[in-house]
Give the backbone structure.
Amino acid sequence: MSRTPLLAGNWKMNMDHLQAIKLVQELGLDLEDHKFNYADADVVVLPPFTDLRSVQTVVESDKMKIAYGAQDISVHDNGAYTGEVSASMLVKLGCTYVVVGHSERREYHCESDAVVNEKTKVTLAAGMTPIVCCGEGLEIRQAGTHVDHVLKQINGAFDGISAEDALKCVVAYEPIWAIGTGEVATPDDAQEVCGAIREKLAELYGQEVADKMRVLYGGSVKSSNVKEILSRPDIDGALVGGASLKADEFSRIVRQDG
Ligand code: PEP
């Protein structure tokens, strides 16, 4: 089963709009210099909300084949929700991806599986691709219940979502203990959980659908480890934090050039 790899850079709360313009331009140029074939992988950047208009302008004016999206989305359409950004606002800015349920949103903004489910549905309804994040903390990993924990998150995130819509989603397995710590799950650790996620998706939607869905790994991915991680059968790409903030390093990750 061939699935096009997806490499997505989650900039988190880094880069003002001027830095964003520079980073996207440098990334595009670096990929061009290395004759990167965009048919080989989907490349996505996920800047802060305040950068989206600038990124849109650069991507459109330079006709870049880099897609972009947001790190979060409101469950509401519009109205008195101070600080929130709606799906239609993101669509208007040309966003095609939205990160949903990142562990930092779950932890610092108390996002439950039910909220993640709502955000996944809102993203799909607007025609964008949700990158649905899941992953366990260190204590759960040490207790050996990480697979059960992650599958429960998957059950929650996909509750009430049809097979047709599930096909439009991407899942990102991100063990919290490996995010921003330099501590990478071994490729076999990552495969264990990504494989279990695909089995769960097959149970929910059938093998054919599960085989078409992309499951990413995230957690201290860099150019030196990306190739081995992506060599595992159920890992279809990476959600990259820190290492996506440098154009040459993210370009290496996209090109799997360690
Ligand atoms: C992330 O936050 O999605 C992430 C994977 O971060 P890092 O690559 O820095 O561990």
Remarks:
- The pocket of phosphoenolpyruvate is lined by residues 10, 174, 179-180, 218-221, 239-243 (CB under 6 Å).
